[in-house]
Amino acid sequence: MPFYIPVTIMCLFGNILVCIIIFRNPRMRTRCFYILMNLAVADMGFALATPLQLLQFANVNPGTAGCKLSIFVIDIFFGAAVLSLAAVSIDRYHGICFNRMTRKEGGRLGNRLIGLIWLGAALIYTPMLVACRKNPNPHELTCDCHSIWPEKYHYVIYACFVVFCTYLLPLVVMVFCYSNILWTIQKSKHEAPALRSGKDNRRNVIKMLIAATVLFMLSWLLYNMLYLLKKFDAISENLLGKLWLFSQVLGFANSACNPFVYCIFSKNFRQGFKDVILCRGKSSSYARRMPKEGTPVSQERFVKSRSNTAKSNLETGYNSSEDTKNIHSINVPSSLESGYLSNVGTSKNR
User: Fold this and answer.
1) Can you point out the beta strands (E) in 114-177?
2) What's in the keyword line of the UniProt record (predicted)?
3) Counting Cβ atoms within 10 Å, is residue 103 exposed (0-12), middle (13-18) or buried (19+)?
4) Assuming Cys at both sites, which of 155, 158, 214, 270 could form a disulfide with 149, CB separation 3.0 to 4.6 Å?
5) For residues 124 and 159, is the Cβ–Cβ distance under 8 A?
């Protein structure tokens, strides 16, 4: 039981930082990173809801209402986290393999998608909310709650449905999306230099998301296997008692590990962690990259800045009519050509 305390602290600290970093960095205000923020919120909720189940292990009588609430709250946060991982993979698949949506359209779709994630999680676990009751046998292995079904096979069917919706199906979706994404990136070898650089950025993001997917698969594999074996009465009570709590702790630790995965594979997250921990200004790296309005700037620096913006759009998977239509035909404003550039040239001649 003491293991839950440090893992909960790590989960809350890491995922709060993830939310702050995404909110502070303008380049991360895209549908993909908003879904990752939703994943961080779901992980934090899952960590905060876990003590509700620990109360049941401590032989605290929550009553029927408390039993329903504790089970449903934990389940809905877990379901939202899993569906968020699947939604990120679908978003990257659509953005990289098709790339036909503007950032504004993607933002509107992202809001609807996040709402559907929570709605889907609620629908998956609503039958358990209805069936869950206080357990008349306080010596039950897992907790002081149980579910009442018309027939036992109904519960077995529902258990298979839950594992399919929250483990097998999301894994199939993620494997399909990321395999197609990697294939698309490997095929795009004859691109402009700026596009090739954008492809490298996208590859780093995909590596980060694939690592999070593999971590999720390994963390929850044992729990789902034991869950199904228990429903089919295919495992002894003695062996289940030894492995059940460990499988829950292993799955719970996954919520605390995601921020570390982001930090390892994403330069933006690493920089963001440093900025937040060292109390630096808002998006310092982004501010250094973009010149302030009204500041004398050379044509070379302006073109480089616009090219970086275009590559950022390629990394996030959006189509921007201003930056990605034709990177090599960037028009420099007349004010730069006539005013600022001439001033720079005059100062150099002096």
Assistant:
1) 132-134, 145-147
2) G-protein coupled receptor, Membrane, Neuropeptide, Receptor, Transducer, Transmembrane, Transmembrane helix
3) middle
4) 155
5) no
Please state whether the predicted TM-score (pTM) of the whole model is above 0.90.
no
**pLDDT tier at 97, thresholds 50, 70, 90:** confident
Cα distances (angstroms) measured from residue 277 to each of 14, 21, 272, 299: 11, 11, 8, 36
Q: Is residue 314 in a domain?
A: no
Query: Which CATH number goes with the domain that contains 104?
Result: 1.20.1070.10
Structural domain harbouring 64: 3-189+199-281
* Whether the predicted pLDDT of 168 surpasses 90: yes
Asked if 76 and 118 touch (Cβ cutoff 8 Å), the reply is yes
Give domain status of residue 296, yes or no: no
pLDDT at residue 286 is higher than 50: no
The token pair at 325 is 């239509």
| Structure tokens that stand for 306 in this block | 């616009």
Tokens 């629908």, residue located = 123
Q: Is residue 66 part of a domain?
A: yes
With cut-offs at 50, 70 and 90, classify the pLDDT of residue 185. Answer: confident
Q: What are phi and psi of 265, to 5 degrees?
A: -100, -15
> Domain for residue 316, yes or no?
no
pLDDT in tens, 235-257: 888 888 889 888 988 998 898 99
Domain count for the chain, please give it.
1
Within 8 A by CB and 6+ apart from 207, the residues are 265
